[in-house]
């Protein structure tokens, strides 16, 4: 997740950031999508949900290597739309970007 997010930030802003994707961003993104129902109904910790998102995207990468470039493009588009990219809003932008990425992959792979 760190690699694809940082690649997207670089593509959007033309500057290296070295951002570590926060578990809370991945977890919140997941909660806004149908993917959450596949993680289970038991109460999960933020880190567990984030790990599930990473596993989902990792699985799609292993299954189809083209998903990596596609993921970077989707994240880049969301970051570019948020032209007021700042550290203060970065977690919000990161969450929105991964929400759109998860929704895209769920739709593409008929996960509903």
Characteristics:
112 residues; Ribonuclease iii, N-terminal Endonuclease Domain, Chain A; mainly alpha; globular
Your description of this structure?
- With 112 residues, the protein is an all-alpha fold.
- It has a single domain, classed as Orthogonal Bundle (Ribonuclease iii, N-terminal Endonuclease Domain, Chain A), CATH 1.10.1520.20.
- The chain has helices spanning 2-13, 23-31, 36-39, 46-63, 67-81, 90-108.
- Helix 2 (23-31) packs across helix 6 (90-108).
- The two termini are 23 Å apart.
Layout of helices and strands:
Blueprint: H1 2-13, H2 23-31, H3 36-39, H4 46-63, H5 67-81, H6 90-108
Helix pairs in contact: 1-5, 2-4, 2-6, 5-6
Structural class: mainly alpha
Helix content: 55-70%
Distance between the termini: 23 Å
Count of β-strands: 0
- In CATH terms, what is the fold-level topology? Ribonuclease iii, N-terminal Endonuclease Domain, Chain A
CATH top level is Mainly Alpha
Q: Figure out the total of helices.
A: 6
Shape: globular
Task: Report the radius of gyration as a whole number of Å.
Answer: 13 Å
- Rounded mean pLDDT score: 89
> Which stretches are low in confidence, meaning pLDDT under 50 for 5 or more residues running?
none
Largest sheet: none
Strand content: under 5%
Write the H/E string, N to C.
HHHHHH
């Amino acid at each position: 997740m760190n690699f694809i997010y940082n690649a997207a930030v670089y593509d959007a802003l033309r500057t290296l950031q070295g951002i570590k994707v926060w578990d809370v961003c991945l977890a919140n993104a997941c909660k806004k999508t149908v993917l959450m129902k596949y993680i289970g109904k038991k109460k999960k910790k933020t880190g567990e949900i984030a790990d599930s998102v990473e596993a989902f995207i990792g699985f799609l990468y292993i299954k189809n290597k083209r998903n990596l470039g596609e993921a970077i493009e989707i994240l880049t588009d969301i970051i570019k739309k948020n032209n007021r990219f700042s550290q203060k809003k970065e977690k919000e932008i990161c969450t929105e970007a991964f929400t759109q990425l998860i929704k895209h992959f769920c739709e593409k792979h008929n996960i509903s």
